[in-house]
Here is the input.
Amino acid sequence: MQISRSVCPYDCPDTCGLLIHSEDNKVIKVKGDPDHPFTRGTLCPKMAHYEKTIHSPRRILTPLIRRGPKGSGDFYPVSWNDAIKLITQKWQDIIAKCGAEAIVPCSYAGTMGLAQRNCGQAFFYRLGASQLDRTICSPAKGYGWKAVMGSTPGPNPNEIQRSDLIILWGINALATNIHITHDIDIAKQRGAKVWVIDTYETTAAKLADKVFITRPGSDGALALGIMHVLAGKNLVDGDFIKQYVQGYDELVKEVLPHYSPESVSTITGLDPDVIREMASLYARANASFIRLGSGLSRYGNGAMTVRTITCLPALVGAWSRPGGGILCSTSSNAFDVSLVTRDDFKKSNTRVVNINKLGDALNELDDPPIMSFYVYHSNPANVLPDQNKVLKGLAREDLFTVVHERFMTDTAQYADVILPATTSVEHGDLYSSYGNYTVQRAYPVIAPVGEAKANWEVFSLLAAGMGFDDDYFHQSVDEMIDKMIERNKGLTGSQLESLKASNPVEVMLPDNYKMTFKTISGKIEILNPSEADPLPRYLEPYGDQAPFWFINSPTPYLLNSSFNERDDLTSRTKVFLMMNPADAAAKNLQDGQEVAAFNERGEVAFYLKITNKVPAGVVVTEGVLWNESYPGKKRSVNALTSQRLTDKANGSTFYDVKVDVKGLEQNGR
Ligand SMILES: Nc1nc2c(c(=O)[nH]1)N[C@H]1C(S)=C(S)[C@@H](COP(=O)(O)OP(=O)(O)OC[C@H]3O[C@@H](n4cnc5c(=O)[nH]c(N)nc54)[C@H](O)[C@@H]3O)O[C@H]1N2
Ligand SMILES: Nc1nc2c(c(=O)[nH]1)N[C@H]1C(S)=C(S)[C@@H](COP(=O)(O)OP(=O)(O)OC[C@H]3O[C@@H](n4cnc5c(=O)[nH]c(N)nc54)[C@H](O)[C@@H]3O)O[C@H]1N2
Ligand code: SF4
Ligand SMILES: [Mo]
Here is the structure.
């Protein structure tokens, strides 16, 4: 048996180090790497059995071509040669008739490796295809942070160990960032307190001393209410503000008077005395640390909400002490990804299609209409908002759809051509993280399963088929990774040796990084003159004309729609709709029965779970499952979500959704 180091390729802030145990070209088991500085040898339930994904009987093993009508899932196998020939001929026809912009790529984060994730961009730029604005995740969160902190790096999560008040705000850390629990435990042993601020009592509540339940989309107001009390009672750090903060006086004068605890209470649903208590405990903490999740950024006011919360540590001077601050995300910037994406291949003026609006674009875009859709490491039929529109688009008989996938997802079912994709142990890559500062290189551990090929290999074949002779398309993925490593920023000689050997390497932050504010003024910018709204204020979310907010948050057992191939995991995530007992009683609904959540965009069937963990006026479902897992097997959670965008940065608004709920007769839909 051989043990090889590798990295978890999924879209998760932890980016765990893995030890892959393999024998005879098969992965036998997968363990966490104890030498990884942040994840320290433990894994989540998904990757603890990654071998079940790698060797799943549901893997697609050969290229396939559609035989039945669109969406029927009826395919026959073909050779790679024939598949590539078919695709490139079809594209040449489309380009001749409609121009290359009629071809639209769709990718997001099936793999996070810098080379395999981003290499498709270079190909589609070179082709002159429509560009994709990949803003599905949390660009509004990034925008909010930048508006206050500029390009200041996010703090290392290990700061948590030295904090005495840890606030998990809009993050279910036990699902989406489980390894910070290690740092939280260390802090707790030293007496730290933990708060959870969420829209319902998530599993992370068990880590917390206090749980605060806010109305969806209201957190910006809550932050302003806390600031109102801090300023009013002079609980702020005046010296810090004087030296390091821009715009505190303007905030106090022009904004905070509108956000008394009483007025904020009507927005958030929290008692005014609770808001006062939050402010006084926040001020009293020596080194408060906010770990801000993305949940609250996925609203029509998401960027402004994050911007407002990001101001909080400045008022109490938390940045100046070890363990204090706020972490939105990290970025080591050690590698230059433009070596992979090749922005210089971009043809000027090619149109840009927003990923969140593909539902409309696939059906309605004109001049030229979308005639071909190429999907790789993404599952748009399940993960994009407004599923009914997306599926209607994918069902167009005149749309030529190619899906490069490992499994028969709801997207692959609608393909004209399916190409089999590798898992991360079958290809090489270079990884960095958005939740810590570790970087790592991974080499292939086993040969590709079946005839699977990695993203880079497929783009090389497509480039050859299209007659592109640029040197770029003739290199190997190892050469591309070598180039990124050669041109690294900030790695030492011994770190480079370590990277070569596939060891996890922690990029070091400068000593005074937390107090070096990389903004135009050099200060924390509560007042940012380059913003249309120079000061933060509360904006309302969109909502819908329906009675219940619809929170659709992650489960620990899936990662977006990945891992749906695993019965051992999907059997643990039965698709519940959680509802407060009073709301269920008012609607005469029983625990366990089938219900439908519905709004103007669609209807989805769930099993009802009546629970006090969810407040009145809110319903919750966890996980994005394939359609087959929902009662009725027709639609999944995103049939209810909307294509509307965030206030800034064109982000998704997955949680800014309302629904009504009705009982369903068993099997009587
Ligand atoms: N197990 C697992 N891990 C994952 C993922 C997964 O699907 N499963 N997804 C990965 C990806 S792509 C991402 S981007 C990250 C995202 O991970 P997080 O940053 O944790 O963000 P979300 O999962 O969107 O939402 C987190 C929490 O926000 C809460 N929330 C929703 N609206 C509000 C609000 O208005 N106010 C407050 N205070 N809370 C609110 C939700 O109830 C949820 O508990 O996780 C990654 N990790
Ligand atoms: N309702 C709702 N919807 C959401 C969210 C939510 O919280 N609620 N979260 C949103 C967020 S934050 C995000 S980031 C998006 C994520 O959306 P996506 O990035 O589309 O993520 P996944 O659902 O994980 O789908 C990735 C697919 O890539 C395939 N894959 C994995 N590795 C490879 C590879 O190397 N090559 C190829 N070709 N394929 C590969 C996998 O088999 C999988 O089917 O979803 C969004 N959708
Ligand atoms: S999904 Fe996240 S927690 Fe699980 S192994 Fe991967 S990086 Fe670690
Ligand atoms: Mo995401």
